[in-house]
Design brief:
Helices cover about 50% and strands about 0% of the residues. By secondary structure, it is mainly alpha-helical. The longest helix is centred in the middle third of the chain and has 11 residues. It is globular and about 35 Å long.
């Protein structure tokens, strides 16, 4: 059973780690997720702000 949860990334972050967390969750490049947020998704700033304030940080690894 897969227990992956959508969380903000603590290692791959530019601003708040939202795009890095989405990329880790889906197993794709964070650069691609950032491009999607910039060019494709209308209202992406609003969505990003909501996700940045509601997603928990991923646990730090040693």
């Amino acid at each position: 059973m897969n227990n992956k949860k959508l969380r903000r990334s603590t290692t791959d972050r530019s601003l708040h780690g939202v795009c890095g967390g989405i990329a880790e969750f889906f197993g794709i490049s964070s650069f691609l997720v950032r491009l999607l947020f910039i060019f494709v998704i209308p209202g992406s700033l609003f969505i990003y702000l909501i996700l940045a304030n509601t997603l928990a940080d991923s646990p730090r690894s040693l």
